[in-house]
Design goal:
heterodimer, A: 101 residues, mainly alpha, 3 helices, B: 136 residues, 2 domains, 5 helices, elongated
């Protein structure tokens, strides 16, 4: 079972799809913001994640991932890092007090 | 000292500081950050306690609890609660800063001008001649 993909679907993809479905108009005004938050997450988290994996802080059960590794991280981890940044940005735009005008 | 704590604190605190200087302080968004605290706290808690059961049952990744402070319920170190808070804080500050740039700019080029500080530099140096007078 590709458990990482199940986890991504429940905690990342599904909430993002729901947010897009219900707040499409609002979120479309902040496309660059959302994209930059995803890129920013990658820039900050990927090197740190790589080091942590090398040091054995955490590891990935082989049966839970596709087995495609890019630059020392599994594909799923790259997707997680970038999408979690975009997901939190979307949630912030939709619900954080700072975005209410 | 938890190794995980060190690995987590270094990049998130550096990026939070940079985001504060180059976004929040630059555009005076302190009030917007204050208004976002309830969201930041609630989402951090929801992320930690929401994903804890899933990490326990699905095991998408497995922590080495010996490299944490030792409180590791369901295989998810308690430090992850602090990490959730810091990641939500970082992304919210980033979103507030970038959205301010997006609000102020009418095109992608203007947005990049704000992002790379070209706009600020031009405003400071570009419109002034040798004698400090404004030029057309």
């Amino acid at each position: 079972m590709l458990n990482y993909w199940i986890w991504l679907s429940i905690y990342v993809f599904l909430p993002m799809l729901l947010l897009i479905a219900y707040r499409r108009k609002l979120l479309s005004r902040y496309k660059r913001t959302i994209l930059l938050c995803g890129i920013g997450s990658l820039v900050v988290a990927a090197p740190w994640d790589y080091l942590a994996i090398q040091r054995g802080q955490w590891w990935f059960p082989p049966e839970g991932i596709l087995g495609i590794w890019l630059y020392g991280l599994p594909l799923e981890e790259w997707i997680f890092i970038s999408f979690i940044g975009m997901e939190i940005a979307m949630l912030a735009i939709a619900f954080a007090g700072g975005f209410r005008e | 000292m938890s190794e995980y704590l060190l690995y987590m604190l270094a990049p998130t605190l550096v990026s939070a500081t940079l985001l504060y200087i180059f976004g929040i302080a630059r555009f005076s968004l302190q009030k917007k950050v204050s208004a976002s605290w309830p969201f930041i706290f609630m989402l951090s808690i929801a992320m930690y306690f929401g994903s804890d059961p899933a990490v326990y049952f699905l095991r998408p990744w497995v922590f080495d609890c010996s490299k944490t402070i030792g409180i590791c319920p369901g295989g998810l170190p308690i430090e992850d609660l602090l990490f959730s808070f810091l990641i939500v804080l970082n992304v919210t500050m980033g979103a507030l800063s970038f959205s301010e740039m997006e609000r102020r700019s009418r095109s992608a080029a203007e947005f990049l001008d704000y992002f790379f500080f070209f706009k600020d530099l031009r405003q400071k140096f570009g419109k002034r001649g040798k004698e400090g007078k404004a030029i057309k």
